[in-house]
Amino acid sequence: MVVMSRRFGVAEGNSRDPDVARAVREARDEHELLQNLMECASNGNQNCFEQLYDALVPRIYGLVQRILRNVAHAEEVTQEVFLEVWQKAPQYDSTRGAVGSWVTVIAHRRAVDRVRAAQSASERDMRMGAAEFEEAYEHVESTVQQGLDNASVHAALSRVPESQVEVVTLAYFGGLSQSRIAQALGVPLGTVKTRMRLGLMRLRSELGGEYEIG
Amino acid sequence: MKSDENAVDDAAAYSLHALDPEENERFEARAGRAEKDLAAEWALVGARLGKAVAPEEPPARLKENLMRQVAQTEQVDPSAPPKPAGSSKAPASGARGRARRRWGMVPVTVAAACAVLAVVAGVWGMDQKRQADETRSALSAAESESGSKTESPSILDQISSASDVSLAKGNMDGANISVMYSASHNMAGVSTSDMPPLPEGKVYMLWLLDKDHNVVGSGSISGGTNGEGQNAGVDLTTMTDQDLSSVAAFGITVENRDAKAPTGDPFMLESDS
């Protein structure tokens, strides 16, 4: 199938690379474009990787910044993320998730690692200050309420019980471990674990198959 | 892992990178393949949250620095297997089999049983041919083992030889549920093995759902009952009294025997054709 006009563009300079041109030509949609670029990048093509970076970096940088709340750290971590993507590109397996999801999982892990490293450096004891938690809580809350631009994710979150959304988003956007969440909320660890599991199950069910697209 | 449920809870936290370092190590060292597959799938749910964050344009120097590094950095050897221990399983695809509507809240014990079942949902989905063969042999085994409970031994033969035979299946840590059915024959065979035991008076109820997940039929399935020795080994339930023409998905919940509608989020199986 030949698509005459494309919504997704590729910078002029690199489209001269025949591999990039082919990745673009053979893609019927953005999802396939990312798959093709990843495959080409996994063979060591830096031009394909550059296109992949251009396509993915705004979302990844947006997420990393949300989690880290620090622009300088977000830049560093984003760079680490994409370097890891480049290194591991040959291991990417399209049957285990879309390219965007795979990169997002890597970005999340690296961002959370950075948050934890910063926490353990700044805190002598394991107790999280109430004020600090309050700040993290409000940040996560505003991220969920105002920082997401996807209507179906909003709708799905609104159908999951609040106590479950709370722990899932504190972990995901706050980078907090389950034990810290338990301690800060003053609920047993087992309760947090259960809420996290039920919340994810519910969210998956509310999102339907959409969680793996793109 | 203290119990399956703990391992499953840890899979959830692991997928959100919410385990403390020592818990994380323990999970990676000790979790079974089912939990790791589940964690990989839940990580994709997390990724949906991550991808919903509004985009931000990074400064141009980020790309310049990165591309300089890339030019000097070798890629991993593609023949080296990636770390996520696991399987070749593809993530379940499509929205068809997912519960889309709310069924209301459920009592804690029931929710816990549903959670175990949801794990089963998370790990199903294999090569269809092999699945068909396995289902057929599981059902045949169940049939010969529990012949007295079977309404008619020929039902399974009729289903498996039907031109429109379809399958749905899930398994985790030894608990298996397989549904083989033929819409043209209005017959279904359900085999279960090692289902978690249920409290007195509760049953596993199979809900037949249309494409909009409206309930179009139901029946209790064997397995998980106390005191009858049924929760070990394979149990078989056949259904011939249901209209399967509009069935697009199967859901399972734990219910009282006389339940008319699911009281919790069902664990979803989906037909593969």
TrEMBL record, chain B:
The keyword Nucleotide-binding does not apply. Residues 1-31, 52-100, 135-157 are annotated as: Disordered. GO terms for molecular function: sigma factor antagonist activity. It comes from the Bacteria. Residues 85-96, 137-147 have a biased composition (Low complexity). It is found in: Cell membrane; Membrane. InterPro entries: Anti-sigma-K/W_factor, Anti_sigma_zinc_sf, RskA_C. It is a single-pass membrane protein. Keywords: Cell membrane, Membrane, Transcription, Transcription regulation, Transmembrane, Transmembrane helix. The keyword Transit peptide does not apply. Residues 110-264 form the Anti-sigma K factor RskA C-terminal domain. Coiled coil: none annotated. The chain crosses the membrane at residues 103-126. One of its GO terms (cellular component) is plasma membrane. GO terms for biological process: regulation of translation. This is Regulator of SigK.
